[in-house]
Each structure stands twice: as structure tokens, then as C-alpha cells.
Design brief:
This protein is an alpha+beta fold. It has a five-stranded mixed beta sheet. The chain has a two-stranded antiparallel ribbon with strand order 3-6. A hairpin with a 2-residue loop joins strand 4 and strand 5. The longest helix has 11 residues. It is globular and about 45 Å long.
Length: 117
């Protein structure tokens, strides 16, 4: 495997929309999964094998990625904004940020509420 292929799969791409984009000052961000430590495996995770596997082998919960993004954008109101956002992983909407495990290579969308008229 080439270093380029490995580095693409070890990164998570974050796409910010609406107020999340305005707050961070960017539309796209990346996080290398090797830089993110995971304190524990989510208790709610249903796969028993995952519960017994070391963090580096199973990935990180989406909730941990959210904490990393908040830390990256200290001094902003990103925490409050992310609390009301919806999330997508590889173009699929998700509601439970604890059950989604990211292994690298995913595209995560930060989608704030929208209104229209």
C-alpha cells in the first residue's frame, strides 16, 4: 500500500455547512485518525468483537470527533452550534453519534438546521 493511499484512509474529511461553516471559517477540514485518542469503547455498541478490540483497530466514535473539532475551534461558539446540528457519514444521515465508528476515509457532514420561507 502506498503512503498516499494509507494517508487518505487514515484521514476523516469534515464538511461544514451554514452557520458551522461561518463559525469555523472553513468549508472543509481533515482529522488524522491516528491523532485522535479514544478514552473508551461506547457501552451502547452492539458488536461484541468491537468491545474487545483495541481502539486503534476499531476506530473512534463520531462523538469523539466532535470533541476534537470543538478543541480545534476554541474561542468560537462551535460547541453550541454542533449541539443542534445533524450529522452525515458518507452521505448517510445519522442520529446517534455514539454508535457510529469512524475508521478513517469517511466524509462527515455537519448540517445545521435550516429555515426558509
Amino acid at each position: 500500500m502506498s503512503n498516499t493511499a494509507y494517508s487518505k484512509r487514515s484521514r476523516i474529511t469534515i464538511l461544514y455547512f451554514g452557520i458551522a461553516r461561518t463559525t469555523t471559517g472553513t468549508h472543509i477540514d481533515t482529522v488524522d485518525i491516528s491523532e485522535v485518542s479514544t478514552p473508551s469503547i461506547p457501552a451502547s455498541h452492539k458488536d461484541e468483537h468491537v468491545k474487545r478490540t483495541a481502539p486503534c483497530e476499531y476506530g473512534i466514535p463520531l462523538s469523539r470527533l466532535i470533541e476534537v473539532l470543538i478543541e480545534r475551534h476554541k474561542g468560537t461558539k462551535l460547541r453550541e452550534i454542533l449541539d443542534i446540528c445533524q450529522w452525515s457519514v458518507d452521505l448517510e444521515m445519522t442520529t446517534n453519534v455514539e454508535d457510529i465508528l469512524l475508521r478513517g476515509g469517511e466524509e462527515v457532514g455537519v448540517i445545521p438546521p435550516v429555515s426558509g420561507g
